[in-house]
Amino acid sequence: MDHERRCKLDVPRDLYEKVGDRKRIIKLIKIGLLSLKVVYLEKEIADLADKIKGSKKHITELPHETERLYELLGKAIEDRQVLEKMLDKGR
Amino acid sequence: MNIQRKKVKKIALENDCEILETAKKLGISLDSEAIRNIIGLGMDSSHVESQLKQTVKELEEKKEELESHFKKIALQTVRLEAEYVGVRNQYARIFRDNRVLAMHLCVHTPMNDHERRMRDLLIQKYIIDSKLA
Question: How far is B97 from chain A (nearest CA, A)?
Fold first, then answer.
């Protein structure tokens, strides 16, 4: 009973009369929904393509940034050795 | 209320319950106004149902492909970011240590010119410039 009630649609009467028959109404609803689905999917695909593009750019830049940090780290380690040596001498 | 009821005609979907499933997936309600708009879209469409179904199928395949590609890139990103953050934290820790050591160096008397230059350079780098940054 519940299933039956759920499987009924309220079609505006003026539209129903304009189209004329149930089968054509159902067909138009199906086509309308499929058109909407196409639009939604196209948008999702475009968003995904943008995200991929952004991520690709990010993963191209990251190794350079990491490399730059490794250089800074190496220099900071050298500095620490110098600092420790100088402070040891002063004791 | 009766007037409102007369404005719509209830039609049974019978074996066409896929309409409900599609609407649910799209997150749209199927009240009479929504149905009016959907029928409007159907009337405006220049495609037949089978063409649209084929297009949906192709787009879903493309979406799946892109999602899979994106997941692979996301994994790569996570790995690279983890390395970046690791090095950055290590650098920040050593920089802070050096800053403390440079502060100790401020009260240190240099033994020669070379040491004086080196001392001034390190104080400049780890205390003065670091404050400006």
Answer: 8
